[in-house]
Amino acid sequence: MTDEKSVPVATAPEEITRLFVEFSNAGDADAVASLYHPDAVMAYPPGQVTRGRSEIRELWASVLAHRPTFTPEEPLPTLYFGDDLALTSTPPRDGAGARAQVVGRQDDGSWVRIIDQPEFQTPTA
Q1: pLDDT tens-digit profile of 10-32?
Q2: Measured in whole angstroms, how far is the alpha carbon of residue 37 from the centre of its chain?
Q3: What are 80's strand-pairing partners?
Q4: pTM
Q5: What is the DSSP string of 9-24?
Q6: Residue 45: cis peptide before it, omega within 30 degrees of 0
Q7: Rounded CA Rg of the chain
Q8: What are the residues whose beta carbons fall under 8 Å from the beta carbon of 24, sequence distance 6 or more?
Q9: N or C: less crowded end of the chain, CB within 10 Å?
């Protein structure tokens, strides 16, 4: 549990996506932001980069204000680099192309997103 709001934390890289869906569907931007490293970067909205947990929280607050519903996506196998860095990904149900995240283990053993590419678009010719 985190100190801020006692929200669940990811104890494995694959749990981040499940928690993201749970927190987003609850409309909890603070909990969603807790899944990101304080200095994380996210390639969203499309064509832009959102930097840092605070900006990521603001972004998700504006998105979640519209009350979207997220559906869990089955994660692809996690690719580990050592014990504390991993690449997670999911094939999206919405046809967005792909989703990929670099995640890191924190000192308390929990995992957070460091780099988040929530949508890859197929380049147009």
Answers
A1: 999 999 999 999 999 999 999 99
A2: 10
A3: 86
A4: 0.88
A5: -BSSTTHHHHHHHHHH
A6: yes
A7: 14
A8: 32, 60, 64, 68, 70
A9: C
